[in-house]
Write a structure and sequence with these properties.
Layout lengths: L13 H6 L9 H9 L3 E5 L6 H12 L20 H4 L2 H4 L7 E5 L8 H18 L11 H11 L5 H5 L1 H13 L3 E6 L3 H8 L3 H17 L4 E8 L9 H10 L13 E4 L14 H10 L6 H8 L2 E3 L2 E3 L2 H13 L16 H9 L2 H11 L4 E4 L13 H10 L4 E8 L2 E7 L3 H21 L3 H8 L3 H14 L7 H13 L5 E9 L2 E9 L6 E8 L6 H14 L4 H6 L4 E9 L2 E6 H4 L4
Parallel strand pairs: 1-4, 1-5, 2-3, 3-4, 13-14
Antiparallel strand pairs: 6-7, 8-10, 9-10, 11-12, 12-13, 14-15
Helix pairs in contact: 6-7, 9-11, 10-11, 16-18, 16-19, 20-21
Length: about 600
């Protein structure tokens, strides 16, 4: 029997993955495509957990002329034995171990204020200087530059030195190796997004811009660069610059200002599409390797559906988690693994700001429908609240929506968007549930409960209608939504046990409210849903007749509850009708 390699969760270091013989989906032809295309600065934007960090680690391992503290070179060829890039020939393998590499992740800058975020960034820069400290042994570097190098490495340098630190390190490495430098930047947009929401955006954009301009725009020591993030941010600006542009019509100043050699590879790009995420063939091979072929349709339903360029891909993070779980427990149900990797704040932002039109669009998406929106690839964080279209674009580029179709009209590209799969649909549903529960907590529900206990159908109905208009249906069927809606409203009722689909009499009542004090009335609610407003009255009557026909109150009577209130409630779209037993049937 062939040994099945272990599956890694969260290991993003290529060397560790290969040396410990974890299962690896071979993406090494990304190296070949980078060399073939020969672009100077490449920006890859992909959703979180789609393999960006691992890809950069793989690129670093292949290209880096790695040195120890004493300046002795390392041989990394063992990490690519039998990989696709080796099979591509000597015209590619001759670049293995040839270049010095600067590798920097900016994710540590997700902090509450600029001082802390800046401190975390210079720590990362200092570690990279420490990793290359062997250059201090070189006679080709001036002593004055060695002093600057040490001050940066020891985190004692002035702001201006850190703002140009990547360019300075590139020059030092080139002098030592006599080769240009490859620069790899991971999660470049994390400091920008975080600083915007934490209100120190101007300071952060100023620092990141200086760091990038010196590294990518005016760096004669640069061989090529790869930058990764979730969003393309190319027109960022401070308020002062915004005002200046308004007065003198200047061009936007952004993170990549004036970088005319920037190659942006977004989810709309056809190039490199198969290197982030798993293709259908790769998922099939993985499932076969672990004897899980029977799970293919379930995996497709839950984790497929993304489209990068013209290539369909699966969420790699979720597929690996699912396979690892299924290997241990074949009968385990699929889960929304991706939802646990982020706060999903962008979905919550959309829901919080939703007007009636957006609420309808969200409902249509969850029900399996589509929406059409103009695409804006240059959205900035300061633009996010200007229109709802911008929020939809953020959701698309970060993986919460997928592209189904495009068309061009009035010089604008329009995208037809849908929810990619069941996992992402769950994220919407769960976020909406949490939002609804929060709304309930801040509502004054006393008028509702007084109406329910006092058989005041008019007030009860009016309250439900007002909340229905504010709510968003987050279930696969309308009946499920209305049931969850009523359960959420009734849960906070004190001194009552709330039972949903409770088995009683000859069936299951939709909602049963049993008082802890037998003197208080017990309440039975039966729900109906219709498509036409004209059918609501008769549906309420049917609900009340069902309560009697199936004897839902029998056990309550047997337990000695003296007062029982029966409600037949019918829902139609964002409206409802409420009746009690006294209006259509005999009361118990």
């Amino acid at each position: 029997m062939n040994r099945k390699p272990p599956l890694s969760i969260g290991i993003e270091n290529y060397k560790e993955l290969i040396s410990r013989e974890y299962y690896y989906v071979d993406k090494t032809l990304l190296i070949k495509e980078l060399l073939d295309k020969g672009e100077k600065v490449n920006l890859f934007t992909r959703p979180r957990r789609f393999g960006k960090t691992l890809a950069l680690s793989m690129i670093q391992t292949f290209f880096e002329k790695e040195m120890d503290d004493f300046g002795h070179p390392a041989d990394n060829s063992c990490y690519f034995r039998n990989r696709k890039i080796i099979q591509s020939g000597e015209q590619y393998t001759r670049f293995m171990g040839k270049f010095p590499v600067i590798s920097l992740s900016l994710k540590s800058a997700k902090q509450k204020d600029f001082a802390t975020a800046y401190s975390c960034l210079i720590q990362q820069i200092a570690r990279e200087y420490e990793r290359h400290r062997y250059v201090l042994e070189s006679d080709s570097i001036l002593e004055s530059n060695k002093e600057i190098y040490r001050s940066i490495m020891e985190q004692k340098a002035a702001y201006s030195y850190y703002a140009t630190s990547l360019s300075f390190l590139s020059d030092c490495l080139k002098k030592y190796h006599n080769e240009n430098v490859i620069i790899l930047i991971d999660e470049y947009d994390v400091p920008l997004e975080n600083s915007y929401f934490c209100h120190f955006y101007d300071d952060m954009i100023s620092f990141i811009r200086s760091l990038f301009e010196s590294a990518f725009k005016t760096n004669d020591s640069l061989q090529f660069a790869v930058i990764t993030g979730c969003l393309r941010i190319s027109k960022e600006s401070t308020p002062c610059e915004t005002a200046r542009r308004a007065s003198d019509h200047a061009h936007p100043k952004g993170v990549f200002t004036g970088l005319n050699n920037l190659n942006i590879i977004s989810v709309l790009s056809a190039d490199y599409a198969e290197y982030f995420g798993f293709t259908g063939q790769e998922v099939c091979e993985m499932l076969c390797r672990y004897s899980l072929e029977a799970k293919m349709e379930e995996v497709r339903h839950w984790y497929d559906g993304y489209r990068f360029g013209r290539t369909s891909v699966y969420n790699p993070w979720s597929v690996i988690n699912y396979v690892k779980t299924a290997v241990s427990d074949f009968s385990a149900f699929p889960r929304a693994y991706w939802s646990n990797t982020s706060s999903n704040s962008i979905v919550r932002e959309l829901i919080d700001k939703a007007d009636s039109t957006v609420k309808k669009e969200i409902e249509d998406l969850i029900a399996g429908g589509s929406i059409e929106k103009p695409v804006h690839e240059d959205i900035t964080y300061e633009d996010i609240h200007k229109t709802q279209d911008n929020l939809w674009n953020f959701l698309f580029f970060t993986g919460y929506l997928k592209l189904d179709d495009t068309h061009f009209q009035d010089n604008t590209i329009y995208l037809t968007l849908t929810i990619p799969n069941e996992e992402v649909r769950y994220i919407y549903q769960n976020t909406i549930r949490e939002w609804f529960e929060q709304q309930i907590r801040i509502l004054d529900l006393h008028p509702l409960y007084e109406a329910v206990l006092g058989r005041d159908c008019h007030t009860f109905e009016t309250f439900l209608k007002s909340q229905l208009r504010r709510s968003i249906s987050c279930f696969d069927s309308s009946e499920s939504f209305y049931h969850g809606f009523m359960l959420g409203l009734m849960k906070p009722l004190q001194d009552y046990e709330i039972h949903s689909n409770f088995e009683t009499g000859e069936g299951r009542s939709d909602l049963l409210l049993i008082p802890l004090d037998e003197i208080q009335p017990a309440i039975i609610m039966e729900f109906k849903q219709v498509k036409r407003f004209s059918e609501m009255d008769s549906a309420c009557d049917r609900a009340l007749l069902q309560i009697d026909a199936k004897h839902y109150s029998a056990e309550l009577i047997e337990d000695g509850y003296e007062a029982i209130i029966k409600y037949g409630i019918c829902f139609c779209k964002k409206s409802c009708r409420v009746k009690t037993a006294g209006e259509a049937a005999s009361e118990v």
